[in-house]
Amino acid sequence: ADLAMADAKQKGRNTWQWYQGDELRITEDAVMLRHDLHEALQKEQFELYYQPIVEAISGRIRGFEALIRWHHPERGMISPGVFIPLAEQTGQIISLGRWIMHRVCQDTARHATMQARNAQVVPVALNISSLQFRREGFLQDIQQALTISGLPPEWLELEVTESVLLDGPEQAIELINTLKAMGIKVALDDFGTGFSSLSYLRDLPIHKVKLDRAFIKDITKDSRNAAIVQGIITMAHHMDLVVVAEGIEELDQQEDLIRRKCDLLQGFLFAKPMPLANVMALPEVLPSTHQN
Ligand code: C2E
Ligand code: MG
Ligand code: MG
Ligand code: MG
């Protein structure tokens, strides 16, 4: 049923599409998960994994993305692709999101301390749900997480999707400008998969776009995909934006994206998301077959 839910989410975007016949089972499942989610926060069943983001040419680690994992006592590992949309539906994303924010800042502060000798900032990107982002009190929450952890703001990066524009672009622009003034950069995630027009790219004070894996998957086989990717990279660079491609699994994809001047890469070819302890043990440069 978890898979069916993930699948339904894919098809229905922000709405749930229940399958006939499976309807009751899936609904019951959602109710159970909702209850479990509440308990999971109390019982600390969540863990943050971190995936390296590397410079395309050298494989040198330039950052990390924080990705939440749920170790469910009976169901094992549940994918965030399943429970994040559910938590958004129930509103639990607010408390879960706040917990994630604090944990990522604490983890990153530890990592920053370890890295201090290199005198180089290796920012950690935190995924922010649009509901969380557009909610009053978001800035105070971020500020509090930074203060409590002692993390310098330039070590934190936020990943938002274009759905932050849902209530109109003005609030989003203002918020991103405020974050920028605080020293926190904002990246636009899953770029190219949403509905909005390109003009928002012009208006949003972001510093980075992340190309969705959907475009990267067949980049070496599908010339239309490749054309879109090349177009986005060229356009983004003209706007002084950094471009990250996600979901790199093959050496061919890396080579292709180097030729297209993509700045940063993220994917299983370099490393899968991993617990914080493993991050501490990573070399500075990842070979294209690292995978772990
Ligand atoms: P995303 O932000 O686009 O994250 C990238 C996803 O691609 C992650 O899936 C990552 O594990 C996966 N990935 C990275 N490299 C590869 C690769 O080479 N091949 C393949 N097949 N996949 C790759 P994950 O961790 O399952 O997360 C799924 C989505 O859940 C994320 O998509 C994000 O939208 C959401 N999410 C994850 N963690 C958080 C969180 O802490 N807060 C919020 N609000 N959302 C989160
Ligand atoms: Mg992301
Ligand atoms: Mg993404
Ligand atoms: Mg994505």
Summary, kept brief:
This protein is of the alpha/beta class and 292 residues long. Helix content is 46%, strand content 19%. The chain binds ligand C2E and magnesium ion (MG) (3 copies).
Mean pLDDT level:
88
What is the approximate shape? globular
Helix content: 40-55%
Return residue spans where pLDDT drops below 50 for at least 5 consecutive residues: 1-20
How much beta, percentage-wise? 15-25%
Series of H and E elements: HHEEEHHEHHEHEHEHHEHEEH
Task: Write out the distinct hetero groups bound to the structure.
Answer: ligand C2E, magnesium ion
Give the N-terminus to C-terminus distance in angstroms: 29 Å
Order of strands, main sheet, comes to: 1-2-4-5-6-7-8-9
Structural class call reads alpha/beta
Domain EAL: 30-287
Protein name: cyclic-guanylate-specific phosphodiesterase
